[in-house]
Design goal:
mainly alpha
Amino acid sequence: MRLFLLAIALSATLATSAQNAQEWRDSLAVLNKAIALQPRSTDLRLRKAAVNIELNQWDYAIDEYGRVLQLDADNLAARYFRAYAHNHQRHYDLALRDYEAFLAQVPNHFEARMGLAMVKRKLGRQVDTVDELNRLVQQHPDSAVAYAVRADYERELKQYEPALYDWDEAIRLAPENAEYVVSKVELLLSLKRNEEAWAELQEAQKKGLSKAILKPWIDRCK
């Protein structure tokens, strides 16, 4: 049920993303009036916080999610989106706490696990970041994104062979994703392994990726 409610909250946040700023402000005014009549409604407060985010009122959103958590300490939607808002505002320690509290209740949640890993990365906690990314891959072995995120961090750490392995896995799971292919090719080229880069580009074209998209990297292999 908690995951269901979180999914509903996320859908509500995204469903009206096409509204313009004035429409968002109008929605906010309506929600503020409704909250004045029903101050203990967590649903109304979650909707208001979502509108605050759409209006780039991140600190107001954080405050609103805090009020929701005062009313319902186990509210997953408020916990997750407050972590997201804290991360946006570079309140990394606070984002970390919220992600950890969320994951204590939903340990296999992909976006929260990745969010926690990225927060630890920004805090410079290298070992912890690697642990979180390893856990992400273990929990979601069929996710190309999980391998790609880990590969990117391994490249940053100059762990090139593990990074190449993870790019291979990401490409295997999402062969149509040109970004994964060129990320692997970029790494190979940086290592002066041009023949391998060329072979990767040839294989990508056989799998249907456009030569026009890959041309800048094809030219660099010559």
